[in-house]
Amino acid sequence: MAIGFPFEYVGNLHIHSTHSDGGGSAKEIAESARTVGLDFIALNDHSYLTQLHLEDEGYHKGILVLVGSEVGTSFHHYLAYNIKNQVNDESYSPQEVIDAVNRQGGFGFLAHPFEKGMHFLQNSVAYTW
């Protein structure tokens, strides 16, 4: 809980672990989160994995660890939560990804809404990684 704000929780909703291209295990990332004062983290490893690592979900030294997925297709990445099975069909349109997540009772949002190449930003300044 954030110091001085009893009903505010601080966390990070987009982290990769060593299951995909991240730099630490769930426990290592949770320890780092605790060190910097976070209350929760969400691991969103890439959807090219064949399975979600739901065994990482839970509390690690007081830090809530949630497991989701970063569903990536041609021009978008969608952070999906509360899913039990990976959504990894590269041919899906953005709406088909959302529908597939919703069918599992899940929800999500765009991971990089201002990334260069996003269809709805064709005439806008985009964040370049």
Describe the 3D structure.
There is one protein chain. With 129 residues, the protein is α/β, with parallel strands linked by helices. It is 16% helix and 28% strand. It has one domain: TIM Barrel (Alpha-Beta Barrel), CATH 3.20.20. The protein has two helices and six strands. It starts with 10 loop residues before the first strand and ends in a 19-residue tail after the last strand.
Major pleated sheet: 6 strands, mixed
Strand content: 25-35%
Per CATH, which architecture? Alpha-Beta Barrel
What is the helix fraction of residues, given as a range? Answer: 10-25%
Radius of gyration: 16 Å
Detail the poorly predicted runs: none
CATH topology: TIM Barrel
Give the oligomeric state of the chains in this entry, treating copies of one chain as homo and distinct chains as hetero: single chain
Q: Report how far the terminal alpha carbons are from each other.
A: 31 Å
State the CATH superfamily name.
Metal-dependent hydrolases
* Strands, total number: 6
Question: Mean pLDDT, rounded to whole units?
Answer: 85
DSSP summary: helix tally: 2
What's the level 1 CATH class? Alpha Beta
Task: Describe this protein with a few key phrases.
6 strands, alpha/beta, TIM Barrel, six-stranded mixed β-sheet, 28% strand, single chain
List the helices and strands and how they pair.
Layout: E1 11-15, H1 26-35, E2 40-46, E3 58-60, E4 63-73, E5 76-81, H2 94-103, E6 107-110
Parallel strand pairs: 1-2, 2-4
Antiparallel strand pairs: 3-4, 4-5, 5-6
